[in-house]
Amino acid sequence: MENRGLRDRTRLSICLIFVLGVSAINEIAQAQTQKVRITISSRSNTSVPYYVAVSKGLFREEGLDVELIQANPRLGVMALINGDVAFTGTFVSTVRGILSGFPLKIVLVSVKKGVYYLIAHPSIKDIHDLKGKKLGVSSIRGSDHLVAEELFRSKGFNPAQLQPVVLGDTSVRLQSVITGAVEVTTLSPPHDLMAQNAGLKALAGPPEIGMPASGMITSDRLIKENPQFVRRAVRAILKANRFIGEQRQETINVLLKWVKQTPEIAGRSYDVELKAIQRDGTMSDADIENFIDRLGNEKKRLVDDVRDFSFARAAWKELESGK
Questions:
Q1: What is the mean pLDDT of residues 306-314?
Q2: How many CA atoms lie within 13 A of 173 on its CB side?
Q3: What does the pLDDT look like over 56-114, one tens digit per residue?
Q4: Is residue 257 a contact partner of residue 295, using CB atoms and an 8 Å limit?
Q5: CB–CB of 183/94 below 8 Å?
Q6: Where does residue 297 rank: exposed (0-12), middle (13-18), buried (19+ CB within 10 A)?
Q7: Among 244, 258, 269, 308, which is 20 to 30 Å from 51 by CA?
Q8: Residues 189, 272 contacting (CB under 8 angstroms)
């Protein structure tokens, strides 16, 4: 009996040590996980690298506990400059801020050529019927506004004949065309197909025009003060980019959890846009120069003022070598 009691006490001690050990490991892991806030401008499919990185634990693999915050592009940029958030996935409007002198850098590009369609109210029979009508935009000179103007010019229509109306989020722009509050807007997947299913008309669209629509931008200060932190965040998104390129159905499943849409629309979005994701997260200098020229490079910012792909290159090399 005495030996049996000793064995029971020994087992109890071992179990207690195991439980305490697991608890200590969890506490250490939590202490080593760093809280990170990242802004995106809207819940759309172009933000899928962030959705995948959160859903599949890719940020956590890099020791990051990420909170995605949907924010107005202007507020997102200011939060980034002030240090309230570490990164933003809001692309074109943020790059325009860089061109005006904001101390920020593109550190990664996921969607090099975003897909947009000109979507019009059913009352519009021809693109030239839009003279004097309202164009719904997310923000003045935002990516959807710029692409809309380029699409109009490609069809021989002068966009100066339209009245831009700031409406914000993609879903609001879609609803505004459905109700006739504005006659036309530009929409990207999945909202373009939602619009056509609702009886709206696609007047123009890919592959004619496109510009970078998704990536990662951070502050010069964070790059200087905590480069390893930036590198870990970039690594997580590069893992997501690789996952998206290789896992069609799993990517669609993630999209369905984050953005309200049907499996058909999510699948089409993947096939027309996301399968061409930039796995290595970079763009050539020539493509960057073309991009900033299209945005209006009035202060003549150089490519080196706009991007720093050193983190993406280093992280991609590690991923390719299996480190």
A1: 97
A2: 28
A3: 999 999 999 999 999 988 899 999 999 999 999 988 889 989 999 999 999 999 988 87
A4: no
A5: no
A6: middle
A7: 308
A8: yes
Using the CB atoms, write b or e for 114-146: b if 16+ within 10 Å: bbbbbbbbeebeebebbeebbbbbbbeebbbbb
* DSSP one-letter string for 241-286: HHHHHH-HHHHHHHHHHHS---HHHHHHHHHHTGGG--TT----HH
CATH of range 117-204; options 3.10.20.740, 3.40.50.10260, 3.40.190.10, 3.10.450.30:
3.40.190.10
- pTM equals 0.78
Contact call for residues 48 and 274 (beta carbons, < 8 A): yes
Structure tokens at 134: 């309202």
Angle at the Cα of 229 from the Cα atoms of 226 and 235, rounded to 5 degrees: 140
In angstroms, what CA-CA distances link 37 with 4, 15, 46, 265?
55, 38, 18, 29
Counting every residue written for the chain, the total comes to 323
The whole-angstrom separation of Cα 276 and Cα 189 is 14
**pLDDT tens digits, one per residue of 8-47:** 544 544 444 444 443 433 443 344 789 999 999 888 888 9
Identify the CA nearest to 198 among candidates 180, 212, 217.
180
Whether domain 35-113+211-320 has CATH 3.30.460.80: the reply is no
Q: Where in the chain is the domain with CATH 3.40.190.10?
A: 35-113+211-320, 117-204
For residue 287, what is the enclosing H or E element?
helix 285-295
| Measured distance CA(9)–CA(21) in Å, rounded | 18
